[in-house]
Structure formats: structure tokens, C-alpha cells
Write a structure and sequence with these properties.
The complex is a heterodimer. Chain A has 13 helices and 7 strands. By secondary structure, chain A is α/β, with parallel strands linked by helices. Chain A has a 7-stranded mixed beta sheet with strand order 3-4-2-5-1-6-7, sandwiched between helices. In chain B, a hairpin with a 4-residue loop joins β4 and β5. The chains are: A alpha/beta, B alpha+beta.
Chain lengths: ~250, ~550
């Protein structure tokens, strides 16, 4: 079971759309795939038309009184399941803080029993730097970091890379990719070009800012499913291929 | 699609009519939006073939084997009768001809069925073509919460040997597939279907439903004698029924023998012929005398004509076991013998096939059936009204007494022929017990049968060893005559002959103990109890 997590401290950078589309593509390849919508706003759940509700809330899941397995819902697509968001996830930091030992490793432990059922797990994280995101970083094999091509977001990537490098033992591989790239903006194109060539770990495939991607909230489905031949779908497919091909294994 | 807890239904509908499916979709529309899902997993056309041996070994072991045809090759799926999968393996294609499990490529299905089916071939029993279409059942959010799977199945009997025609359409099968996390919605959909007129729960698997519609039922062949006879039935009627049942077995196996599907068709045919001959000899007194005389000779001919191929089959089937016993010689030394046996079998098989296709065999089966039906259906004169129970009692008692007397006279100095002769008598008793099995008390029957089997095994070992030894000698002569015998092969054959002599000697030493158990005071008592039950049946 390989765990991918889409993470950025900022909101509105394309985390959820990436998680939803990459999870869909993974399932379409025949891999048994689970997407966990960790964001209390429940955008990923909404896109799959699944109610953002878990019986017993986040508390039951984190405390283990309800197994993750029991909360999982089948999506409309083969091999793709979703663990819905719940509004109580907004308190997840507190719940994780209650964990007796190793509060930063709790999510990873909760996912372990699913190893036999899924080939890929995608964690869609809420934007923040918190105990939840630290848990996600410890649980993930690959951190997928969407970047808006601005100087500021490049700084964010540096900070994140440094933070992860400070982990004891197992560290996730950090894979950034440019998101919401506006091809009419010179700066966007410049930063995208420079960084993909200069920095290791930055994917060559950018995800453009496209109205087709925004349409996902109307269609309530991954763009890769409802418009598979669109530019947007092609970009996600190229990104997925690139992410999988990465030869560098995460340091353990 | 994450599915689980399939709920299956059958729509009662006239052949080729789709109105019931339309009604089903409209019923479900009350609670869900029903939307076709073209290209859904599992939809489209599927071809499968159910396989089993002629004597239903897999079915009797609670298993079903399916070959699922794919665009390229396919896979074999072994499941329990309730559909629980047991094993599967890919196969490039299923041979047009029935095949043996040992001819399959290595894999979990082969491993699981090899011992069970060997040496019988796997025959196609039913072929089915399914057209599957899938409908999504959506909730108010447009989310798929269950699926309705419609399966229209056309079934074919590959051999055409069915009562209900060779092709038939099954009533459409419907299944509600659960989507993970929405069990209540699947229950709801199933509830709606269950309450619809013209829709009922599927009580049979597709396989069983297919057999039924083709006029067959599972395990409709057995090599055993299970004639319908009762104690009070007139003896000639009971004997005619027995013999008709045996004739059925002969005729059912002819096609398999002629197509040379596996060795056991001929074996079953021969056993039925042997049983027929014993029945004519021991019970023929109640049949018209001229009939008995004629068919005694005809069935002897039939038995004789089948012997050479069966003898060669026995050699070839046991060949690996034989080479496994070699100590001095190498198994390869015997390969020329195997090749020689195979060549001989080809020749003998041609003779056998000609005989079974010829007029004499057809005359035997046709005339014999006609004559037996006459005896069965025409009431004889009242004064000769011997019952089946009385016949069983006298014939079984006489047979047992003969064995007891014959066996008691055998000493260590007796010639081998005396043991061979006793073996024939025990075989006759065995057949009598089996013929009249429905009339016996089952506990008493099993006790006598168990003693008898042990005695028969010992006598069988003794005689078979001797016969095989003689045959190996004859084969060596024949191979020399045909210049097909290297010295190493002859030496290896000599070693086999020596082994056979040893096992024969062992059987001889065991004989007295086995015989004492069967015919001594305790054995006699068991037979007395068995026949006392018969006496009661007679009254």
C-alpha cells in the first residue's frame, strides 16, 4: 500500500482537485484506491456526491471505536472508495493530541489495517500546519505539493522540505508540482520553467488554470472522468505518470 | 464497483420478451433514478462452459468448474455449489475435445481436481452465453448507491443428449449489487424487487437452472445398480427391471467408448455386461428359457470383444506405478513396453469400435430391451408368482453356501485355479447383494458386504498378480516377435514379474484368515441375520 498526500499550508491551490483526479486515475489503472477526505469542508466528498458525514465523527475514528473500514463508501467508479469528511474533523488536532503515545503517528497507525485492501491511499489534507498535517507527513510515502507559481510559494516549499528533512527515521518523498498555472502570465511561465529545471523534486508537468477544472463542482465528478480528452484531464494523466515513475524511493 | 451481498432474482417472462425488465426498472424508479451504465465492469457478453466428469465427480464433491471464455484464452474457476470461489487459473483455451485434468497447465485448479477426477475426462456439460447489462441506482444527490445487474442467459447442451432440446433461454436473472457503505439502499432495492409480481428469488444457480431447462438433472449418471424393485414384486418383473437398468448403463457408455474420451466408459460398460451375465446365470431361471440361452451367448461375446482394450488400459493406467517399483532397472528401460502397449491399444481399439458399431451389437441391445420390456410389462401366470424377496433369499443363500463349501475345501496344496474359481463365486455373490440391495436391511447388508470385500480384495490380488505375470510373459514374446524388445526392457519386465510373484504369494498367505472371517461362525451369523430380514420381507 502506497500512501500519497496532497498538502499545502495554503488553501485554494488545487489540493483537492489533484487528490480527486489522481485517485481516479489510480483506480482507472485497476489499482484498489482509497481517498480520505481529511478536510472538514468536505470538498472531495462533495465532488463524489457523498455526504460529508462519519457516524460517531472523527472522535470514533481516531479513538478506534469505529474502524476506518466501516466508514468507507464506494464511489461511482470501479476500485475507488472514499472515506468521507466530517465536520468534527475540525477538532482533529485535539483528538490526535489526546493519543497516548506518538501523537504524530496516529493516522499512519489507523491506516495500517487497510494495507491488504488497497494499493494506493490518497490523503486530502486541510490547509494548515498542525498536528493533522504532521500526522499526514509521517503517514505518507509521497507528499504531493501543489504550488502556485509565485516567489512566496517557492519559499513555502523550501520550508516544508526542511521540516520533513528534520524527521527521525522514515521521511516522505516531497514532490511538488505547479498548479493553477495561468499561461497568459509571464511570471507564472517564468517561475514554472526555472524551478522545474533547477530544483529536484518538482514535476515537469504543470496543471493549468482551466475552467474545465472548475466545472468539477458542477459535474460533481473528476474531470478525468467526465472530460477524459480535455486538456485538464491530459495534464492530470501526465502528472500521474510522472509521480509514479519517480525512481527515488522515500528514505526510511 | 464494490459489490457484496448479491441479491438474486428471476423474472418470469416469455422467451425473448423484455417487458418484465422494463417493469422492474419502472418499479425501482419509485425510489431511485435508474440509469443505464454502458461499459460497466462485468457488462457485455460472456461465454462460459460448465465442466464435469461423465459420472459427476465434481458435483458429487460439492464443486462446480467453469471455463470462462475471454477474447484471448480464458480461465477456469472452481467454486463450491453455493458459488464460493475455491480456485482459479488462466488457460489459453479449453480444448475442443474433452480433456483430462492432467493435461491442464500447472495451477491451483488442476491441483485441486486432479486426484478427484483422474482418470476421467472433463466434459462440457452446459454452455451458456450471458448478456449482462448494468443499471446504476442513484439517490437524490445523483450518487450511485446500488446497481441492478440484468443477465439474459441462453444455454446449450454441447452433446445434444438432452430431453429438453439443445438450446434454451433462461428467464432473465436480476441481481442487486451493493455499493460499499450503502447496504440499506441495496436492501431497499431488493425489497422492491421481491414485492413485484412476476419476480421471484433465484432458488437455483445458473448451472442447475440450465440443466433443468435442458431436461437434465445433476448426477443423472451412476454406474451403480439402482433399479426400482420391491420385495413383493413378481420375481420376473424385478429381474427384468434389473437387467433393463444394466442395459441402460451399457448404452449410455457406448458413445464415450467410441469417442475414446476416457478409459472409464469402457470399464463401466464392461461391469454392466459382467453384471448382466451374472444376473442371467443366477436369476435367469425366472425368464423364458430360450431368451436366456440366446443372450447368455451374446453377452459373452460382448464381454470378450471388450477385453483386449481394457487389459491394455489397465496396463497403461498403472504404468507409472509399475515403473515406480523398479529397484534394479531404470523406469526408462520400460518405455519401449509403454510404446508397444500404446500401439497395440490403437489396433485393438479399432476392432472394438467396429464391433460396437456393427449389427450384432445393435441387435443385442435392441432385442434384449424389447424382450425385457415384455417380461416387465406382461403379467405372468398366477401360479408362478415367485416374489423378488423370495428370489433374493434363495439365490443369495445358495451363492453363500457354495462359497463356504468351495472355500473350505481349499488348502495350501490347492492349485491356483481353485482360488480363481472361488473369486468368480464371490463376484457373483457381490452382484446378487448389489442387485437386491433395496430389499435388505442396510446395517446387515453393510456388514456382510464389508467381509466380502476383504475376501474379494485378497482373491483379486492373488489372481491379478498371476494374470499380469502371464501377460508380461506374453508381451515379452510378442515384443520379441516384433523385434521391439531391447534387452534392458526385457530385464526390467523380468523384475516386474518377480515383484508380481511376491505379491501373489503374500495374497495366498492372507487368504485363510480372510476366508475364515467371511465364512466362519461370525460371518455365517451375519449372513443369517441378513437373510432373516429377507424372510420377513417375503411374508
Amino acid at each position: 500500500m502506497k500512501i500519497f498526500a496532497t498538502y499545502n499550508i495554503k488553501g485554494g491551490v488545487g489540493k483537492t482537485t489533484a487528490a480527486v483526479n489522481l485517485a481516479y486515475l489510480s483506480a482507472a489503472d485497476g489499482c484498489r484506491t482509497l481517498l480520505w477526505d481529511l478536510d472538514p469542508q468536505g470538498a472531495a466528498s462533495f465532488l463524489f456526491r457523498i455526504k460529508p458525514r462519519v457516524k460517531g465523527g472523527g472522535k470514533a475514528l481516531i479513538r478506534g471505536t469505529k474502524a476506518l473500514d466501516d466508514a468507507i463508501k464506494g464511489t461511482d467508479f470501479d476500485h475507488l472508495d472514499l472515506l468521507p469528511a466530517d465536520f468534527t474533523y475540525r477538532n482533529m488536532d485535539l483528538l490526535l493530541g489526546d493519543a497516548d503515545r506518538k501523537p504524530t503517528r496516529k493516522l499512519g497507525q489507523l491506516l495500517k489495517p487497510l494495507a491488504a485492501d488497497y494499493d494506493h491511499v490518497f490523503l486530502d489534507c486541510p490547509p494548515s500546519i498542525s498536528l493533522v498535517s504532521e500526522n499526514v507527513m509521517h503517514a505518507a510515502d509521497v507528499l504531493l505539493v501543489p504550488l502556485i507559481p509565485t516567489t512566496l510559494s517557492v519559499r513555502t516549499l523550501d520550508q516544508l522540505t526542511e521540516f520533513v528533512a528534520g524527521f527521525d527515521g522514515r521521511r516522505p518523498q516531497v514532490r511538488a508540482f505547479f498548479s493553477m498555472v495561468d499561461r497568459r502570465k509571464k511570471l507564472h511561465l517564468q517561475i514554472t520553467k526555472d524551478l522545474t529545471t533547477e530544483r529536484a523534486g518538482v514535476a515537469a508537468t504543470p496543471i493549468p488554470a482551466l475552467s474545465m477544472i472548475e466545472r468539477m463542482s458542477v459535474e460533481r465528478a473528476p474531470v478525468t472522468a467526465f472530460a477524459p480528452r480535455s486538456v485538464a484531464a491530459r495534464a492530470y494523466r501526465a502528472l500521474w505518470a510522472e509521480v509514479q515513475q519517480d525512481p527515488k524511493p522515500p528514505k526510511r | 464497483m464494490t459489490t457484496g451481498g448479491l441479491r438474486e432474482f428471476v423474472a418470469d417472462t416469455a422467451e425473448g420478451e423484455d417487458s418484465s425488465l422494463v417493469a422492474v426498472r419502472s418499479e425501482l424508479s419509485a425510489a431511485f433514478t435508474v440509469r443505464q451504465e454502458p461499459g460497466a465492469a462485468g457488462s457485455g457478453m460472456h461465454r462460459r462452459t460448465w465442466l464435469d466428469t461423465f459420472d459427476w465427480r465434481l458435483y458429487k464433491a460439492g464443486l462446480t468448474l467453469q471455463f470462462e471464455q475471454a477474447r484471448r484464452g480464458g480461465r477456469l474457476v472452481l467454486s463450491r455449489a453455493d458459488g464460493t470461489p475455491q480456485a482459479e487459473q488462466p488457460v489459453t483455451r479449453w480444448p475442443r475435445r474433452p480433456g483430462l485434468a492432467e493435461d491442464l497447465p500447472p495451477g491451483p485448479v488442476r491441483d485441486r481436481i486432479l486426484v478427484l477426477t483422474s482418470p476421467r475426462a472433463l466434459l462440457p456439460i452446459v454452455k451458456a452465453t450471458s448478456t449482462v447489462s448494468v443499471n446504476r441506482l442513484l439517490n437524490a444527490d445523483g450518487k450511485t448507491v446500488a446497481r441492478l445487474v440484468e443477465d439474459r442467459v441462453t444455454v446449450t447442451a454441447p452433446n445434444g443428449n438432452t430431453a429438453g432440446g439443445t438450446t434454451a433461454e433462461l428467464p432473465p436473472r436480476l441481481a442487486v449489487a451493493e455499493v460499499r457503505g450503502y447496504p440499506g439502499q441495496a436492501r431497499k432495492a431488493a425489497g422492491l424487487l421481491a414485492s413485484m409480481p412476476g419476480v421471484s428469488h433465484a432458488s437455483q444457480s445458473v448451472f442447475i437452472a440450465a440443466l433443468t431447462v435442458l431436461g437434465r438433472h445433476p448426477a443423472d449418471y451412476t454406474s451403480g445398480v439402482d433399479a426400482e424393485i420391491t420385495a413383493s414384486m413378481p420375481a420376473p418383473v424385478a429381474v427384468a427391471r434389473l437387467l433393463l437398468r444394466l442395459l441402460d448403463t451399457v448404452e449410455l457408455n457406448v458413445d464415450g467408448v467410441l469417442r475414446d474420451i476416457d478409459t472409464e466408459f469402457l470399464h463401466d460398460l464392461r461391469v454392466a455386461v459382467r453384471r448382466t451375465r451374472s444376473a442371467i446365470k443366477l436369476l435367469g431361471g425366472v425368464l423364458p428359457a430360450d431368451l436366456v440361452e440366446h443372450f447368455k451367448a451374446e453377452f459373452k461375446w460382448l464381454g470378450d470383444v471388450t477385453t483386449p482394450v481394457r487389459d491394455l488400459d489397465v496396463h497403461l493406467l498403472g504404468f507409472d506405478a509399475l515403473t515406480g517399483q523398479l529397484v534394479a532397472a531404470s523406469p526408462d528401460d520400460l518405455e519401449p513396453l509403454r510404446a508397444f502397449l500404446a500401439r497395440r491399444r490403437t489396433r485393438e481399439f479399432r476392432r472394438l469400435a467396429a464391433a460396437l458399431r456393427g449389427p450384432r451389437f445393435r441387435a443385442i441391445t435392441d432385442d434384449w430391451r424389447k424382450a425385457l420390456l415384455e417380461v416387465r410389462d406382461v403379467d405372468g401366470p398366477r401360479r408362478r408368482r415367485l416374489t423378488a424377496a423370495a428370489l433374493a433369499l434363495s439365490a443369495t443363500g445358495r451363492s453363500f453356501r457354495r462359497i463356504a463349501a468351495h472355500g473350505a475345501a481349499i488348502t495350501s496344496d490347492s492349485p491356483p485355479e481353485s482360488l480363481h474359481d472361488l473369486r468368480k463365486r464371490t463376484k457373483e455373490l457381490r452382484y446378487l447383494l448389489e442387485f437386491f440391495a433395496p430389499l435388505h436391511d442396510q446395517v446387515a447388508y453393510r456388514k456382510v458386504l464389508s467381509d466380502l470385500k476383504q475376501l474379494q480384495d485378497c482373491l483379486g490380488e492373488f489372481q491379478d498378480s498371476e494374470v499380469q505375470r502371464a501377460e508380461i510373459g506374453a508381451l515379452a514374446d510378442a515384443m520379441l516377435a516384433e523385434r521391439a524388445a531391447p534387452a534392458a526392457t526385457l530385464l526390467a519386465m523380468g523384475e516386474i514379474a518377480a515383484k508380481l510373484a511376491l505379491s501373489q504369494a503374500e495374497a495366498r498367505t492372507e487368504f485363510s484368515a480372510r476366508f475364515a472371517r467371511f465364512a466362519g461362525p461370525a460371518g455365517r451369523e451375519r449372513v443369517r441375520v441378513l437373510l432373516a430380514g429377507e424372510m420377513q420381507g417375503r411374508r
